[in-house]
Design goal:
202 residues; alpha+beta; four-stranded antiparallel beta sheet; 12 strands
Length: 202
């Protein structure tokens, strides 16, 4: 005989979104129940320290570039003197090593600039999917850690229905078809597909 089961409908994917860097929340831009799009700002961190870090990294890059130019000029002079016999192999090797070290310092400084720019962009928390804000767990002035959930976003995608099935009907559930109706519109039927059959009841 056909039997009806009462279940709970919930979003298939619901996740907490958090900042990739720690800091103090400056502003929250969304409220519970609000629909958000991909890339939409959800919250902002106080980015004063991140801006200072970016400026410091750029200053270190300029300094490293100056050292590299000087080391390259010294290497060129050493090479010219070596061709004329006025310099030793040891001096030439020393100039080459200094130039190589200066180039490495510039590369490290460039990477540091990229990282600080990335961190500065992470001060804006953006939605990674279209969805509905289900909850917010941070307020302006609150200090949050990296990865700490700030906004819970339920993606607008497939929905899943969670139902309890008696053991006697488990075999039928595995191979049968199901239809879902809502209390608000019981005349409309939705076709359901089995995604997971848990070994134990929740």
């Amino acid at each position: 005989p056909d039997r009806s089961f009462v279940g709970t409908i919930r979003p298939r994917i619901e996740n907490d979104v958090g900042f990739r860097v720690p800091g103090k929340v400056a502003k929250r831009l969304v409220e519970v129940g609000q629909v958000v799009d991909i890339g939409q700002p959800l919250a902002l961190l106080d980015d004063a320290d991140l801006k200072l870090q970016a400026e410091q990294a750029e200053a270190e890059l300029r300094a490293a570039a100056g050292v590299q130019a000087q080391a390259q000029a010294s290497e060129n002079r050493a090479a010219e003197l070596r061709t004329k016999g006025w310099s030793t192999d040891a001096q030439m090797d020393q100039a080459k090593a200094a130039a190589a070290e200066a180039r490495g310092r510039v590369i490290r400084a460039e990477r540091s600039v990229e990282l600080t720019k990335n961190n500065l962009s992470y001060a804006t928390l953006r939605s990674d999917a279209r969805g509905v804000v289900m909850a917010t767990s941070a307020e302006p002035g609150q200090v949050v850690a990296s990865g700490q959930g700030v906004v819970r976003n339920a993606r607008i995608a497939e929905k899943e229905v969670v139902v309890a099935v008696p053991e006697t009907l488990v075999a039928r559930a595995e191979g049968g078809e199901a239809h879902v109706s809502l209390w608000s519109d019981p005349e409309k039927k939705y076709v359901a597909k089995l995604r997971e059959l848990a070994p134990a009841a929740d």
